[in-house]
Amino acid sequence: MLTRKRIKISEESIALIWPQLLGRELITEGGERIKVIYPGRANGDSGPDFRDAIIVIDNSNLAKGDVEIHVKSSDWYRHGHHFDSKYNNVILHVVVQRDANSATLAQSGKSIPVLCLPYELWYQAYLIPYHQLSCFQITKRKDREALMGLLDIAGKERFRQKASVFQTVCQQEEAGQVLFQGVMRALGYSKNMKPFEELARRVPLNFIEGTELRESLVLKQAWLLGIAGLLPSQRLQRRFAKEREVQELEQIWRLVARKAKTMGENDWNLWHIYPNNSPVRRIVAQSYLLQHHCKKGLLKGMLQLIREASSVAGYRCLEGGLIVFSDGYWQDHFDFDIGAKTRESALLGYGKAAEIIINVILPFAFFWGEIAGEAGLREKAIELYNHYPKLAENEITSHMARQLCLEGMVDFTACRQQGLIHIFRNYCREGRCGECPLLS
């Protein structure tokens, strides 16, 4: 006979149950009544299990944030989440067994509601009435061409929002610096976006392009890596590399570092990232990109690429202006003393170049053409955007493709992918299903 005590449940199986609670009213261990409005998206990285969830507490308070899944409530402390700031945005702790009397506390000191699933769900999840989001399998209810048209509109709206942000920031800072910060932010991905922005502020573009750094690649690298605090001698475990290229960087930095206000190794996320996305490698990539455009400057160089690109296949020209190949030390190193088994000649490859073009270069050029009265540049930027082919999937586009049952679509473009992101950020994670343009 199968008894409850013999049944073992895993966090993975609970994670499968959680989205099925959509629309259900439940009661937490503290007596709060909650209703799941949006279960969020599964997190394939470190941190909470679900991101961007929405629940209503006691029929009035709308809570937006993350959801953490455990078998036992004590696992929160056993896993050390109470010391980890990545869990400060958790709004609900979902468990199947409350085995601790203490509250679930975040690193910030916030108390997090605990939802203990009913006993029957331990082994009878199939009994749950399966609720679906109103957009589930939307392709069966809406004409495909019309759906693609709505995603195009959403993608263009996201494009114009990005252009508007650039315009606002340019009211306080020089245009070249705004573009430089945008590229740096994109190089940092989500995990190192803020430290890359900070580095761009500490080593501004007018300093790089207006001093002796302008013509020297090694000076650019020494300043950028030194201010970042990522040279071997600056690390927590101080190392002194023997390679000639590294010794040259260290020597230059010792000569110029007296008054420099540097960042530290702890400012960067160096763990759980793909080796090719190492901040050190991306900073070096930026130095090569700046060196490539050192004659005209980054701003003029990027705008010229757009002016010279053809409207339909011009993306190849744009990517060619951003792709960075290296030789010597960085051809087979991801970080100092961290080599690759094979030579990785591209410091900045096609995929990352395309992301920077879509998210930074084209929206910036659109805004610049508008304020400069250069209608041709403005029109070229939006045409290139509209014709840009599909980019590599990210967590949000993959999540939205699954949610809408759009996996495997062969006619997707970068604009439509951006439309998925726009829908997610402005409707899904805001609990505004009733206002979603895809359902109109």
Task: Characterize the structure shown.
This protein is α+β, with helices and mostly antiparallel strands. The protein is about 40% helix and about 10% strand. The chain has helices at about 10-15, 75-80, 145-170, 175-185, 195-200, 205-210, 215-230, 245-255, 280-290, 300-310, 315-320, 350-370, 375-385, 395-405, 415-430, and strands spanning about 25, 35-40, 40, 50-55, 60-70, 90-95, 105, 110, 115, 325, 335, 340, 345-350. Strands 1, 2, 3, 4, 5, 6 and 9 form a seven-stranded mixed β-sheet that branches. A two-stranded antiparallel ribbon has the order 7-8. Helix 3 crosses helix 15 and helix 14 crosses helix 15 (about 415-430). It is globular and about 70 Å long. It starts with 10 loop residues before the first helix and ends in a 12-residue tail after the last helix. Residues about 1-5 have low confidence and may be disordered.
Give a short summary of the structure.
This protein is an alpha+beta fold.
Shape: globular
* Through-space gap between termini: 52 Å
Q: What sequence of helices (H) and strands (E) makes up the elements?
A: HEEEEEHEEEEHHHHHHHHHEEEEHHHH
Mean pLDDT: 89
Low-confidence stretches: 1-6
Q: Biggest sheet, in brief? A: 7 strands, mixed
Q: Radius of gyration in whole Å, from Cα?
A: 25 Å
Which structural class fits the helix and strand makeup? alpha+beta
Helix content estimate: 40-55%
State the total count of DSSP E strands.
13
Strand content: 5-15%
Contiguous helical run count:
15
